[in-house]
TrEMBL record:
Originating organism: Curtobacterium aurantiacum
Domain Serine dehydratase-like alpha subunit: start-end pairs: 197-467
PANTHER family: L-SERINE DEHYDRATASE, L-SERINE DEHYDRATASE 1
Lineage: Bacteria, Bacillati, Actinomycetota, Actinomycetes, Micrococcales
Name of the featured protein: L-serine dehydratase
UniProt-listed NCBIfam families: sda_mono (TIGR00720)
Cofactor: [4Fe-4S] cluster
Amino acid sequence: MPVSVFDLFSVGVGPSSSHTVGPMRAGAEFAALVRDLPVASVVVDLYGSLASTGQGHGTLGAVVAGLMGSHPETVDPDAMVLALETLERDGVLRLDGRATVPFRLADIVLHPLTMLPRHPNAMRLRARDAAGTDLADETYYSIGGGFIARDEEAEPRGRTDADGASAAVAGAAIPVDDTVPYPFSSGAELLAACARSGLPISGVALANEAVTRSVPEVRSGLLGIHGVMESCVERSVLRGGCLPGGLDVRRRAATWYEQLTREDPDHDPLFAMEWVNLVAMAVNEENATGGRVVTAPTNGAAGIIPAVLYYVLTYVPTVSGASTAERDDAVVRFLLTAGAIGSIYKERASISGAEVGCQGEVGSAASMAAAGLAEVLGGTPEQVENAAEIAMEHNLGLTCDPIGGLVQIPCIERNAIAANKAVNAARMALRGDGVHHVSLDQVVETMRQTGADMSSKYKETAMGGLAVNVPLC
Ligand code: SF4
């Protein structure tokens, strides 16, 4: 059953959907669960990738912010930093914003070498009474893209009920029943739905979303998501200096923005790609700063879809010179198409770097963006499927090896490279007739198998690749 586009594109804070958004969501849910219990202390254990790269990915602060009652879609990133500074100074945690218990970030117990069976990103949260007896004991998994699941739950969840207002804006998830007009969980099923209905991929996705919310709500929700993407870029190009975390990585977006706005657009036939680079890097620099971003479908890969959307709105002649309503239509069609492709990756493989490496994050985002672009450029469903396939085929095997466990190197540049790859994949697909050798389903399955075979050193543990070959000083 397709995952809702509003679960794949949700508003959160950086730097990582699996290591920041998911843990915050889990912490908030646990805090609500124990709200009325006589809690005197809490115990937080992080396992696997959450423990090995949690410091650099902001996991410790995120889970504690969740325990304090913050939700990823509504938290003010600056207020969160202040709240964590107060916690460190006073050694007191206000559970769900109310009961106080003694706690500091150093109390979080890290188990980097222990992988719980269900997923490499696991956390155990316990609440105890004054006698030290467990009142609640829950294990959560953060499975990528901000989705979480408790031990006993078969199906992971994106936005939770606890996310409150923001969930209401986005609407409910697509139901798992026969009210969905075009159920699909593979590229073949999606193409069959298009053939049966005569609709483009975005039309099939819209019909499915319209089961739980009106078409105007879908449209305004997606335009709202795009607005958050644009605000993210606008904030980022005003920031200078270095990114946080200790690597002393200089922010480049502000300087590049200044340069590009001064340059003659006609001096270079590849000028458009400079802007694609800039938008992707601006989003990912904001993500690395812990700012507000849209998971698309993850935070680490959050720059690719906004960058390719920028290309659509600025450099696709049928869109750039169109009316506001037509430009909005293009944004909505792009995001619905990208979401339909993303839901296939989510259903049949993974969008989690900790599970399948960076091919699942940056590869999936590039594939989604290529599909969105191909559809806006007028591609048939088969050409759109081909674009999605090409973009993933040439990201297969991509490892996750962030230096210092920070979502900075190689992540920021990688988004820019992948956004350009997505543009190229869409253009290549549109030169063909949609008939091609490797199907999207075959490449999705190849990605899943490659991820399963990949050493855990290359799956968001910062224990291999660039993470061990580039000195941290
Ligand atoms: S290398 Fe890729 S998967 Fe790993 S943290 Fe960076 S963007 Fe995410």
